[in-house]
């Protein structure tokens, strides 16, 4: 005696409580990583023009920033440094008293409640803005590797909890793992930017980190946005080389890749919700064209649904505050 010739999917959508009960994916503050741009100098708190709400700060503003993040319950920061001086070989990146190394020490002195993830790259420190040393108008893979290793080791010595190499050289996980182990840091995990596309969505970040390449582009080391199998190969190598986490970057245009990673590799998958993705939403919401909170929560929840376990996002503070409101 059936009443219906069809399924009643709306049964499970009847009330907010019921919808919450059957919700498959939930966004939590504990999923979020907040990127910080630390600039050399004093009393600097300067808003990035293409990223409203995101600031470059000097070390004297770091403590109050950390207090705010702790109050919000954000578990981790990802550190980028902007040095006063740059050179051909990015010396500031592996200076034991470089800006990021100082920032790490300062945070660690203040608290053990916040995980410090160090972005390991040279592009903010090189005069040419590329992620390694230049030979013949291109980044020399094997000559760059030892500099990335030195950078990672100085970051670990300063107290970094996780090393996140974003340089996209071949073999960087192998070499950095070896370097960390030899320096006594076999317990420090590597969060590899395994799948990093040569994306136009990094534009605002390059303003924020002052890392625009002075010639050419990054297409000989970052990946072609058209490729999926290449992502599988990159991640496969990094996992074999010992990566503990894999990052997919950017996130929004690469949800299929996040899902591929989740299905293929039993390691935590990290989505990097990059600068251009932030700026687009900010611009539209500042114009009153979209509802910022609703759009951001929908986007980040979708990244989790796609398979991300962790999300690096410039919206972390906003999301944490919104989630606090709700509860
Ligand atoms: C450094 C690095 C970049 C980003 C993170 N690490 C820039 C780049 O590769 O050009 C981009 C992050 C963002 O756009 O939010 N190699």
Automatic annotation (TrEMBL):
Biological process terms in GO annotation: protoporphyrinogen IX biosynthetic process
Catalytic reaction annotation: 2 5-aminolevulinate = porphobilinogen + 2 H2O + H(+)
Binding site for Zn(2+): 121, 123, 131
Pathway stated in the Swiss-Prot or TrEMBL entry: Porphyrin-containing compound metabolism; protoporphyrin-IX biosynthesis; coproporphyrinogen-III from 5-aminolevulinate: step 1/4
SUPFAM superfamilies xrefs: Aldolase
Binding site for 5-aminolevulinate 1: 206, 218
EC assignment: 4.2.1.24
Binding residues annotated for 5-aminolevulinate 2, in chain numbering: 275, 314
Superkingdom field: Bacteria
UniProt-annotated catalytic positions: 196 (schiff-base intermediate with substrate), 249 (schiff-base intermediate with substrate)
One Gene Ontology term of the molecular function aspect: zinc ion binding
Pfam family, one: ALAD
The protein's required cofactors: Zn(2+)
Residues given in the record as Mg(2+) binding sites: 234
PANTHER family for this protein: DELTA-AMINOLEVULINIC ACID DEHYDRATASE
Physiological role: Catalyzes an early step in the biosynthesis of tetrapyrroles. Binds two molecules of 5-aminolevulinate per subunit, each at a distinct site, and catalyzes their condensation to form porphobilinogen.
Subunit structure, interactors included: Homooctamer.
Family: Belongs to the ALAD family.
Name of the protein in its database record: Delta-aminolevulinic acid dehydratase
Originating species: Gracilibacillus dipsosauri
């Amino acid at each position: 005696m059936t009443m219906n010739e069809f399924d009643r999917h709306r049964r499970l959508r009847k009330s907010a409580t019921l919808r919450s009960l059957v919700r498959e994916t939930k966004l939590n503050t504990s999923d979020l990583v907040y990127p910080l741009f630390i600039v050399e100098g004093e009393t600097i708190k300067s808003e990035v023009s293409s990223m409203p709400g995101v600031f470059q700060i000097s070390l004297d503003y770091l403590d109050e920033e950390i207090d705010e993040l702790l109050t919000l319950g954000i578990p981790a920061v990802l550190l980028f440094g902007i040095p006063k001086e740059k050179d051909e070989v990015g010396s500031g990146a592996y200076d034991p008293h470089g800006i990021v190394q100082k920032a790490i020490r300062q945070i660690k002195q203040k608290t053990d409640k916040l995980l410090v993830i160090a972005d390991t790259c040279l592009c903010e420190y090189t005069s040419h803005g590329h992620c390694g040393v230049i030979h013949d108008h291109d980044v020399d893979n094997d000559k760059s590797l030892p500099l990335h290793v030195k950078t990672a080791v100085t970051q670990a010595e300063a107290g970094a909890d996780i090393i996140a190499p974003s340089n996209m050289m071949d073999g960087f996980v192998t070499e950095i793992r070896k370097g960390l182990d030899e320096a006594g840091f076999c317990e420090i995990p590597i969060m590899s930017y395994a799948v990093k596309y040569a994306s136009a969505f990094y534009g605002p970040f390059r303003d924020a980190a002052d890392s625009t390449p002075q010639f050419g582009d990054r297409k000989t080391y970052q990946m072609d946005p058209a490729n999926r199998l290449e992502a599988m190969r990159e991640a496969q190598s990094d996992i074999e080389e010992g990566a503990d986490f894999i990052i997919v970057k950017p996130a929004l245009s690469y949800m299929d890749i996040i899902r591929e990673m989740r299905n293929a590799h039993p390691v935590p998958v990290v989505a990097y919700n990059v600068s251009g993705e932030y700026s687009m939403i900010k611009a539209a919401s500042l114009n009153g064209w979209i509802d910022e909170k609703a759009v951001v929560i929908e986007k980040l929840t979708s990244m989790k649904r796609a398979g991300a376990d962790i999300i690096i996002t410039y919206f972390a503070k906003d999301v944490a505050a919104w989630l606090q409101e709700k509860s």
